[in-house]
Amino acid sequence: MAEYEIQIKGGTIVDGTRVPRYRGDVWIKDGKVAQLGGRAPGFAKKVIDADGLIVAPGFVDLHTHYDAQIRWDPYCTISGWHGVTSLVLGNCGFGFAPCKPDFRDRSMLTMTRTEAIPYASMKAGINWDWETIPQYLDSLDRAPKGVNCIQYMPTASLMTYVMGLEAAKTRPATERERADMARILNEGMDAGLCGFSIQRLGPNSVQADFDGSPMVTDTMCDEDILNLARVLQRRDEGFMEITQGTGDARVDLAFVEKLADESQRPILWQAVIPTRNNPEIHRRSMRFVERNRAKGRQIFGQAGTVRSGFAFTLENWNLYDTLPEWRVLTTGTKEEKIAKMKDPALRKAVIYANDNCDNNFKAIQAGVGGNPRHLIVQWVENIDELEKYVGKSLGQIGMEEGKHPIEAMLDIAVATGLKAEFLGPNRGFNADYMAEIINNSPYTFPGVSDGGAHTKFFTGGAFTTDFLRWLVRDEQKITLEEAHYRLSALPAHAAGFRDRGVLREGAAADVVVYDLKRLDVEPDWVGEIVHDLPGGEWRRVQHAVGYRSIIVNGVETFDDGKCTGATPGKLLRHGHA
After folding, report:
1. Band (247; pLDDT cuts 50, 70, 90)
2. What's the pTM?
3. Distance of alpha carbon 72 from its chain centroid, rounded?
4. Which of 140, 176, 442, 477 has the fewest Cβ atoms surrounding its Cβ within 10 A?
């Protein structure tokens, strides 16, 4: 008789392919799904009772920034808690390779600003044993992992490595530099990269560099990108991830189309985001994807389905960076920030700019907590005379004291040494619009979690659990079969994961077993603060409720919410083990 590692017994199987759910057993052997349904000719070392539970493929998260955290947290939590078994590193053009030894510190400083990853944690948690991409991939391969990952070429790192930081930010590459970048991308693809990524948001990028200047890729010229696209075209392999937006939507979208034409490869374009009241916002993005698919361009739309709140202090805040006046106030040392926030001229400038901003910044601000007048004072560093503000909105405080809400915000922040915490209230989400993005296009999938980034502000890594409890169970806007196809099979296909994202015999055994009735996120909205990062740093987390088992490559990583300590995850070079 055959011996199996795991039998998942009597569950409702939703296999990720849109096939109607059915009751049956899943048998796992040698890291693979050995049999679905029926009676296997043997026994299992472990039996997981899945009666009344859903058995589905592990979730695939295409937009994360766990490049640093995976070095000290094999499970890439919070995503790993919420059923993610495979994810992508190197998004937005940001990462840590290639990197010359004398640029390591500056590379980490960049990530403290653009992705708000604590410097002390990176300094303590990353063991730099690489310079080149092949060396980096070998190092990542050796690192213990509780999830699978693929790696994109971080284009900002590539350009800086070849050109130097100042040159990469101020001029196009020379022909020789372009040849070097193409060669390095080729070498990286040979070693197992799955493509490259870029954030291209112009000189007033919402995610700026450590010194407040744009990121390298934000100002790179078209030809420098197309040079890399042609590498993928010649190889006929690889994928691209792009966040594009320099101010003129027609120009931005025309370039995405040109990138698709030059590369002849799939593009993961973001983000398709619904508002509460205006369906034209997301429908316009969906029409762009549909129009280009009809012309043969392989463009996928990454939908922003995260319902996590924002709670932040002005000590670390960076998500108003699109507005230069805000960027001035929130860059520099803590002492420099406080001095600038006290400056009457700078205050006047930021208030005027915020009140007279364009629709682009209004949309960004709405997505990261809302207009300052709606922000609620959540904590004031235990200063008695400021306790009267806790629970009030900045708009209310401003009315009571005859101040502009931003002036009230800056006063409170300065009085607390920038420790005062401001909360973006939950003003509601439109379930119909969110479901429309998924149900009305075959080329969209949920996500844009930003897992591993901005962890002092929000907890996007819980989006998988929230998507199922909200849109499938509570609102019943999306079927369970469709949800698992969009959470697993479609993103796996779009980003080049081979043999992942579905439950079928012979496929890798990445599995989640959960109780849909109990599925929940705790604490809700902005999560809780935990001090579990290297270097004595802290982050916000939301825990997962309702998962009976999470399995990666046939090995349980979480059993009833408790980590097993197993690290069966793999670096999937070229998308496969």
Report:
1. low
2. 0.96
3. 18
4. 176
